[in-house]
Amino acid sequence: MSQPTLISAQGLSVHYALRGGLIGPKPYVGAVENVDIEIASGSFFGLVGESGSGKTTLGRAMLRAAPISKGDVHFDDGEVSYSLKGLRKQDLKDYRKRAQLIFQDPYAALSPRMTVRDIIAEPLEVMGLTSSRAETDERVREIAAKCRLNVEHLRRFPHAFSGGQRQRISIARALVSGPKFIVADESVAALDVSIQADVLNLLKAIQEDMGLTFLFISHDLSVVAHVCDHVAVMYLGRIVETAPTRALFSNPRHPYTTALLSAIPSLDPDDRGKVQKLEGEIPSPTNPPPGCTFQTRCPYAIDLCRIQEPSLENAGTEHRVACHRWQEIGDQAT
Amino acid sequence: MSRLIDVENLTLQFDTDEGRITAVDDVSFSLEAGEVMGLVGESGSGKSVTAKSMMKLNPRNAVYGPETKITLHLEDGPVDVMSLQNDAEMKIVRGGSISLIFQEPMASFAPAISIGDQMVEQLMIHTDFSKPQSKELSIEMLDRVGISDPSARFGQYAFELSGGMRQRAMIAMALSTKPKLLIADEPTTALDVTIQAQVIDLMKDLVTEFGMGIIFITHDLGVIAQTADKVAVMYLGKLVEQGSVRDVIRRPAHPYTRGLLAALPTLEDIDAPLTPIPGDIPSPLERPSGCVYHTRCQEVVGARCSAEAPKFLQVDTNHAAACHIHDASGGAA
């Protein structure tokens, strides 16, 4: 990859304190544990995992919207370079222009009392990016047009819009400050299939047009397979596998990734029951199992997995996997 | 197989402040015992209210059309669901011969009553079992759906169980009365894929074991392909296509079904472009004239589509679609 890294995390952990623990160490939830991740400029990077895997927290930490307990996040867009952990207030303000979030629920994310124009213009006004109302209007119209909203739409209130249109308004609001990095957290999960495709195509077009970098968080692997160039799979706060999309889907190395892929219901009615089933459920992050966090559900777990936590190893070009047995398992499969 | 339920000309409207809204428009289908029917559609397509009509479980402002006829075929003879009046009469379709599993298992259990007490309560209402017998059967059912340590779970509350566990408990409760028809309204939508796979598997086993009919409501065509024998596709309260799961998914006959499949990202071909269906689902207050889908349809055949509602036409054995493209006689219009 020739593109420089836009944002990266090194040993990033996000811990939330729990009540209790007068004696001994303070109990905490490790929502994100020791994550290394590198996102190249211009990438559409997918982050997948089940509920409770820590994908949303990781996304928030990369926006400095979740506390960084250990490690750090580096952001470098060629103009500025920040370490997010010790970011000064002034720099954090500047970082907010450069890194933005698109929410999941387009019904909850928009104020019902503001017109679409005001919703999109608010970030510009709060950040003081424009000097006159005319300039603000100009910017709003420009970004609205990119998101296929017309001037007529700008005068209305959110309730007059469908789910897909509302999500386009949310996207316009996120883009109006001219960010470089966008975290899209389950941004199409609440939409119907016929609308979802439209919003995905719009995100891709905007990304190419404006040269943006996306962290696309989703539980839906089929969606990620279609839009992302790189994918990281999370399980219980850790990244268990990361690779270019094609490599991950054609040659998954981690048993969890394999199980996740095979659990997606196939559209072929004659392809029933060929699912490699996972027993049980994701353990609680307050009390993660020792060793590899996946060992309680892994069909390949051996004694080593119950004692030692595996680290990410290289398994191909840009392909990394955290499993003690990935080589053996891969050999068995072929 | 024997016929389980016949739904004929189901029309359902709601009286609201903004006027009378048509939620379901002249829908007919039937289900055999032991058959799984997938009811597919996007939000607002009327799939949930259609299913709830079989239990007459719709709010007070619901108005059924005069032609509506729903017949449940039981061993003691047919039951005319529309003629059921009071709660005592409706017991037969509400939890007796028909059970319903909701999408959100957290919202379906009472939070302050233990899972076990809720299971026993409904068994006492619908069966002749004594309390100890009900408890025994409930624990047996919890075990049957793969809940470990069922006697301990029996005394727990909904918040103490995980999402997958709650949905299993919900299924155990729905099946303990041995219903003839199970209506599952998006039973796996709130679950993670690995848990979804477990629940789908469980439901398939239970159909085989209990031989009941299932109406499986979902927006996920993948789930349908994995579970259903036949499929009915709804759009804006209209049934637009009906047929065997293979026919509908491999040879979709209605432009809407084709559009849904083209918009769906699949792992089989990750490079295929995603083709959205243009436009938005119209508001139920502004139902399009003629064919309800013509405002978004890519295959409009002429003025006829906006003027005349298409009839259901056979395109193959057991495969029918409501679209003018299949009507050769009037194609010139």
How would you characterize the overall build of this protein?
- Chain A has helices at 55-61, 89-98, 116-127, 133-146, 151-154, 163-175, 193-210, 221-227, 245-250, 255-263, 303-307, 326-333, and strands at residues 5-17, 28-40, 44-48, 70-76, 81-83, 99-102, 181-185, 213-218, 230-235, 238-244, 313-316, 319-321.
- Chain A has an eight-stranded mixed sheet, with helices on both faces.
- In chain A, 34% of the residues lie in helices and 23% in strands.
- Chain A is built from twelve helices and twelve strands.
- Chain B is α/β, with parallel strands linked by helices and 333 residues long.
- Chain B is 33% helix and 25% strand.
- Chain B has 13 helices and 13 strands.
Radius of gyration of chain B: 21 Å
Task: Output the structural class of chain A.
Answer: alpha/beta
Low-confidence region ranges of chain A: none
User: Which chains have the largest interface?
Assistant: A-B, 43 and 43 residues
Helix content of chain A: 25-40%
Topology, element by element:
The complex is a heterodimer of chains A (334) and B (333).
Chain A (H helix, E strand, L loop, with lengths): L4 E13 L10 E13 L3 E5 L6 H7 L8 E7 L4 E3 L5 H10 E4 L13 H12 L5 H14 L4 H4 L8 H13 L5 E5 L7 H18 L2 E6 L2 H7 L2 E6 L2 E7 H6 L4 H9 L39 H5 L5 E4 L2 E3 L4 H8 L1
Chain B lengths: L2 E14 L2 E14 L3 E5 L6 H7 L8 E3 L4 E6 L2 E4 L6 H4 L1 H5 L1 E4 L3 H4 L6 H12 L4 H14 L5 H5 L8 H14 L4 E5 L7 H18 L2 E6 L2 H7 L2 E6 L2 E7 H6 L4 H9 L40 H4 L4 E5 L2 E4 L11
Parallel strand pairs in B: 3-9, 3-10, 7-8, 8-9
Antiparallel strand pairs in B: 1-2, 1-4, 1-5, 5-6, 10-11, 11-13, 12-13
Helix pairs in contact in B: 5-6, 6-8, 8-9
